[in-house]
Design goal:
Blueprint lengths: L8 E5 L4 H12 L3 E6 L2 H15 L3 E5 L5 H11 L8 E4 L14 H29 L2 E6 L9 H21 L4 E6 L8 H5 L14 H13 L4 E2 L3 H12 L17
Parallel strand pairs: 1-2, 1-4, 2-3, 4-5, 5-6, 6-7
Helix pairs in contact: 1-2, 1-7, 3-4, 4-5
NADP nicotinamide-adenine-dinucleotide phosphate binds next to helix 1 and helix 6.
């Protein structure tokens, strides 16, 4: 496929693996241009070359650590460039912490909060300026079903993304900017290995495929939905969390990989 005349420009954070890489692939498949953000410049460049070759789109690479003021400022600058407007922002970069709150260092907790909450807020704020001026734009904040659960500071951070997106979609939808919190359940990516978690501890029915998660998120955002929960099984899980006491919504137990 070659780039289309009405091609959009989509900026995706955490585009070097997992859901972010799949967002990039699906946007490229539709003929849209990309700006890929993550820390690993080598992986981003390899992904960019493959996407340009396979789909004939242009791909910019913007290596940045989104827990760092300088890294966030570089992405804000790109989002604020009126000569090269960004039509779609996907706030997807994320990490999990293996240990319970009190066992993590406060530095680890601060970086985790920064990446999921403060960076998401800063990039949304920057993107909205031009999107509102132009009367159109799309933002997808990758939250989690954990936003509806009681699963430590990860749930707390993802709840912020959920609540913010729900409100922002109501506030800015009428001005042409659609904002969605995408809330996947357990999805096959690098997330759990990076955390040092043993994936076999979670039952097989709980696992989703990244292609399906991204497809549902994009479709729900296009429809103007403030919240997207891929799959019937996780819609049922989220409904159940509304009725269950908080002590029952912590999810399956965690089993660290050997050596962690
Ligand atoms: P993944 O495969 O580990 O990808 C995470 C991405 O985030 C990578 O591209 C990583 O790239 C980037 N990243 C991490 N720290 C960063 C930093 N400081 N600055 C810039 N980029 C950073 O995991 P994933 O599952 O696709 O995760 C994507 C999102 O989905 C996360 O927000 C996660 O919370 C959410 N989510 C995942 C699941 C799941 O089961 N997988 C379920 C619900 C929600 P670099 O290492 O190159 O920086």
């Amino acid at each position: 496929m070659t780039a289309r005349a009405d091609a959009l420009a989509a900026l995706i954070t955490g585009a070097s693996s997992g859901l972010g890489a799949e967002f990039a692939r699906q946007f490229a498949e539709q003929g849209h241009h990309l700006i890929l953000v993550a820390r690993d410049a080598g992986r981003l460049s390899a992904a960019a070359s493959a996407l340009e070759r396979d789909y004939g789109v242009t791909v910019e690479v913007l290596p940045a650590d989104l827990t760092d003021d300088g890294g966030v400022a570089a992405v804000v600058e790109r989002l604020s460039d009126a000569s090269r407007p960004v039509d779609v922002l996907v706030n997807n970069a994320g990490i999990g912490l293996l240990h319970p709150f009190e066992k993590n260092s406060i530095e680890e907790e601060k970086l985790h909060l920064r990446l999921h909450v403060q960076t998401t807020m800063e990039l949304c704020h920057a993107a909205l300026q031009l999107m509102l001026e132009r009367g159109s734009g799309r933002i997808i904040n990758v939250a989690s079903v954990a936003a509806f659960a009681t699963r430590g500071t990860y749930s707390a951070a993802k709840s912020w993304e959920l609540s913010f997106s729900r409100w922002a979609n109501l506030a800015y939808g009428p001005s042409g900017v659609k904002i969605t919190a995408l809330c996947p359940g357990f999805t096959h990516t690098e997330f759990h290995e990076r955390m040092g978690l043993d994936k076999t501890a979670m039952p097989r029915w709980m696992w989703l495929d990244a292609r399906r998660v991204v497809r549902d998120g994009l479709a729900d955002n296009e429809r103007g939905k403030g919240v997207s929960i891929p799959s019937l099984r996780y819609k049922a899980v989220v409904t159940a969390t509304r009725f269950l006491p908080a002590r029952f919504t912590g999810g399956p137990p965690r089993r660290p990989l050997a050596g962690n």
